[in-house]
Write the structure tokens for this entry.
Amino acid sequence: MNPAVETYPPDVRPPSLPPVHSVKLTVNGKDTELQISPWTTLLDALREYMDLTGTKKGCDHGQCGACTVLINGKRINSCLTLAIMQEGAQITTIEGIAPTEGNASQLHPLQKAFIEHDAFQCGYCTPGQICSAVGLMNEGKAKTTADIKELMSGNICRCGAYTNIVDAIEDVMNQKNA
Amino acid sequence: MSTPLVTNTIGKPINRVDGVEKVTGKAKYAAEFNVPDLAYGVVISSAITKGKIKSFDASDALSLEGVLQVFTHENRPKLAWFDISYKDQDAPPGAPFRPLHNATIKYSGQPIALVVAETFELARYAATLVRVEYEELTHETDLEANLHKARKPKHGVADLLKPPPPKPRGDFDRVYAEDPNKVAGRYVHSAEHHNPMELFATTVSYEKNGKLTIYDKTQGVTNSILYVTQVFNIPFSDVRVLSPYMGGGFGSGLRPQYQLFMAVMAARELKRSVRVSLTRQQMFTFGHRPATVQQVALGALADGSMNALYHDAMSETSKFEDYTEVVVNWGGQLYPPENVTLDYKLVPLDVYSPLDMRAPGGVTGMSALEVAMDELAYNLGMDPLQLRLKNYTDHDYNQNKPYSSKELRECYRQGAERFGWPSRNMEPRSMKKDHNLIGWGMATGMWEANQMPARAEAVLMVNGKLRVSSATADIGTGTYTIMTQIAADTLGLPISDVLFKLGDTDMPVAPISGGSWTAATVGTAVQTVCQEVGKSLLKLAKNMPDSLFKGAKWEDITFSDKHMRLKNDPNVAVSLQTLVDLNGGKAVRETSTGLPNALKQRNFSRATHSAVFVEVMVDEDLGTVKVTRAVTAVAGGRILNPKTARSQILGGMVWGLSKALEEESVMDHNFGRFMNHNLAEYHVAVNADIHDLDVIFVEEHDDVVNPLGVKGLGEIGIVGMPAAIANAIFHATGRRVRDLPIRLDALL
């Protein structure tokens, strides 16, 4: 076979860079103004510009759920939305889900249940799992264990803590219903 | 009312000590140290599989304001000359891959350039503008098509941990030919990738004096610092590597990956702090469980006694290193046939070197062997569990040594009882519910119980609290928690008075965290160093005026409830606080090494065992498989923390299910590239795939493996699971599937 020569990518002149914009975000109840390019994802805005690294990057393609945050109480993959699209929205990350009393922040019941049920190992998917579970409970659609499993399947846990994750979520749902 | 202090914490199901950090998002992983003035690097991957880079054109990228540099083999700094400098603690025999070494392309996705810019967004964009001209050569990536090139692996230090197959014993060919009952089969599985949730990343903080503080995703900071100091020829004193948290390893972090090289190179050249994170696609470009083709043949007499075993394997490796794993040895260790032939060969291909992935070799080989055992049981008309019991042995005939402990028989008994195995009807297709066929299968698991040398430091501080450290890793395994328990238990302190730190090259050295040896290895070091502190405290106690400990020897004392006590009169006690107060205002500090007791260990074979029982439901119309329940009974020595231990086994079971039914890196041999290089197309088990999982730890005492009697649990959970699932599928459907993963097309 003859050696083939190819060039990648094809020779096309690049467009000029998009300008930096001022973007106002409301994260965990706090207003922040960022100077970022419009192609900055919400995930990168949180992690790289606001030092809110609790929200994780696992694939950057909406395939793993590690970057799950809450937008106006609904769960969303923060890698699949641009920061600029979320101006005016209430963004809640893992750093903001715990109730605060005075200055002391406590743990959210799901955070406590995740610890109690050992619902994580390496901890990398955990913030996404917990935010996703908060979103799941807000949605109110999960009535059975099978529902929880199905509706939590957008959050991959490579360590395989699934049974413990379901136990933790059911525990909190039962507390709420009790 | 105060509750009594609990200080005998080994064996208690305490919550993870790092739990709060992990559930609040405070735990920081390698890409999360946002040091000031940080630049971002994005790696460009080769678009071809084999050939040469003819030229780069980075002019468009470099013309963008904010792009700092495009590094390639043409402008990289001078690096170490010899292969030895690039060898890491897990390097197989051969010449390690060197990033940006020269124009040669050795595999698809090879890192060929690093674009560094002021922001991540800009670096990512600029990377798309770098034009690369290649000269492409024909590649070979197909294992099946190249089996005729299989050859014996090169030998190296890796053989110590991965022994080649033993010489044949007896006469397999003759005995097998005459056996009344025999089975033979060919077993194939494709490559798999670790895919920990955290992307590989390194943040290099460039300090004012030019020193480097490196936050790396690694299963061993010592491995990373050795690599960096040797490759870049930097003194140890100028580098510090930290890895307090790691978002999953599973073997992928046993070698320094190329983002470490890239980030360090860029930081040194630009004299700036740099972060390099890989993409999920690039997570498929540095090592994988190798595609493997195996053949297994078993022969037995009419009563089920196995007398002949044949197992060979041919695995892919790269063209630059001979990655090996122990695939075929297990049957010779687990069962007693007198006529055994085992063989293992490699087929070098144009791929990256394979890399240890959870139970490397073990889950590969046992997935074939234990399916063959099931087949043999059916051939004999014997219950598969009875066949295992008929061929049970406490002796490892490969090494010709007894096991230091082997409570596998108890695993079989308790697992079978919990699962309800005795009520099984052996007939395939005998259980059905609606349109689902139901099947029950079982298999055995086995993994080695190793211990390495490691060092640890313990400091009883002036406030009476204990700080212990070792440069090991917690890759989600629970190292932080169990080491805290061991330290607390040894010196009679509550968990809250002990702080265990890890993942920092300023700490005493520990080996890479893999092979299920961390609990045994670092646990022994932590126990030893805490005992050293205890001995120093005894000296202080003896020097007290009118001391009741005057004549006491180390053997005579015990620690509990924050006190040192006489064993035979626990009321004679002195608090640790009182003792440290006697140390002239200084903390009591000790550093020591935990060494394997080789003299004791060498007379025994040491291993962990498991028995796995699985129920599947197979949709008769659609061929879909659901693992409705599974029980794993483990003989893993002493269980330090039943809660974290259970989680490790659950995780292994999920991995086993995922391997059996889902995981496969699909190579398009026209391109020589893994095509499903993302988490949408590389399927791993998700929540909806996992149902009732049950874990049993049987009691097992072993004072040979190490003083703690712990064997390690990282791998054993996965090993028996795929075969148990395949066997359950046979029971459900009557189809014997020998290739993994078992997809619905095999069952329609």
The CA atoms of residues 42 and 83 of chain A lie 4 Å apart. The helical segments of chain A are 42-49, 109-116, 126-139, 145-151, 162-177. Chain A has two domains: 21-96, 108-177.
